[in-house]
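User: I'm putting together notes for a lab meeting next week and I want to include a structural view of one of the chains we've been expressing. I don't have a solved structure, so I'd like a prediction I can at least talk through. The sequence is below, exactly as it appears in our construct file.
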Amino acid sequence: MSKYYIISGEPSGDLHASNMMKELLLLDPNIDFRFWGGDLMAAVAKKKPTKHIKDLAFMGFVEVAKNIRTIFKNIAFCKHDILAYQPDVLILVDYPGFNLRIADWAKTQNIRVLYYISPTIWAWKENRVEIVKRACEKMFVILPFEVAVYKKHNYKADYVGHPLLDAIEQEKNKLPSKEEFISSNQLDNRPIIAVLPGSRKQEINLMFSIMLDVVNDFKDYQFVIAGTTNLPKEAYQPALDKNIKVVFNQTYALMHNAQAGIIKSGTSTLESALFRLPQVVCYKGGAVSYAIARMVVGNRVKYISLPNLILDKPVVKELIQSDLTTAHLKEELQRIISGKARETMLTEYDGLITLLGNSGASKKVANEIYNHLHAKK
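Assistant: Thanks for the context. Below is the predicted structure for the 377-residue chain, given as C-alpha cells.
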C-alpha cells in the first residue's frame, strides 16, 4: 500500500486536491491518504482530515501575526504527524506560507516532496524559489507563464493546465437551469447579481457592507450571496437583515445563472471568467497588512485578479483598498450589466479560455506524480 500525505489549507486547495486524489486512486486503488484539507478531500479519502481547512485560513500580515502561536503549533504538530505516518511521498497543494516551511523541513528528513500549484513567486518573495529548488523534486504549475519564471531560476516546472477547468467541467451537466435555481431558492424573476464576499472572516468584515450598499441602486435586479459553511451563518446577517437571499454551497449554480457579479479577489475571479460572468473584482485588507504587501510587491505585479494576470491586461475592473467604495462599485456594476463594456469583457473571457486550453489538469498531474514516483523505484 502506498502512503500519501497531502496538505492543503484553503477551499480552492481542497477542491483541486480532491480531484487529484480521485485520479490517483484510478491509477492505484491501494493508496492510503493522510491529509490536511476539507470536506471534498474527506469524501474522496473516506476519512476525516487530520486538520480541517476551516481552522487554517489566516489572511494578511497582521492576521497572521495575531495567530502566530497557533500557526507554529500547527507546524510542530504537522512535522510530528508526518514522521509518525512515514509517508512514501508528501504532496503540498498551494498554501505556501505553511507548505514551504514543511517542504524545507521534510527534505532534511529524507521525505520525498512534490508541490502542486505554485507559490506566487512572480508576485513577491521571489527568493522562495530557492526552497522549491532544494526541497521539491517536482513543481506542477497551473498558470502558463509560471514555467518561464522558474526557468529563469534554472528550475524545470511542469505545466499541467488549470484544474478549475476540470472542476467546472464536472459540474456543468449538474447545474440547474435558471428556472430551477430560482424555484429551489425561492427567488423572484428579476436578473441576478451574484455577490461573492469570500470565505474568510477578515474578507467579510472588511468588504461585505460595501458590497451590500449598492443593492438599493439596482432595484430591477435581485442580489444573491454565495455563502459558505466554512463561516458561521451569523456572518451573513447583514444581508439577511436587508432581505437579501444567501445560498450555501451553490456558487457555480449562482455564477451560471447570474447576469453580473461582485467578486472578491482570488480563485473566484477566474471561476467567474470561465463561467463568462461579467464581474467587478473587490479587495480590501487591513490597513497595515495592505501597506506591507504593497511595499513588498512594489511594481512587479500590475494586477491582483487571475483573468488580468493571465492575459496581462485590465480585462476586469479591480477595486482595491481605498478604491473599493460604494460609488465606484455602483459605477462599474452599471457598466457591465449591459452594453459595450460587457461585450468586450465576454470577448476577452473567450480568449482566456482558449489560452488555458482544455480540461484534464487533475488527470495530468496525477499521472505525472504516479509516473515520477514509480520511475525512481
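A couple of points you could mention at the meeting. Residues 168-356 form a domain with the Rossmann fold fold (CATH 3.40.50.2000). Residues 186 and 220 are 17 Å apart (CA to CA).

User: Perfect, that's what I needed.
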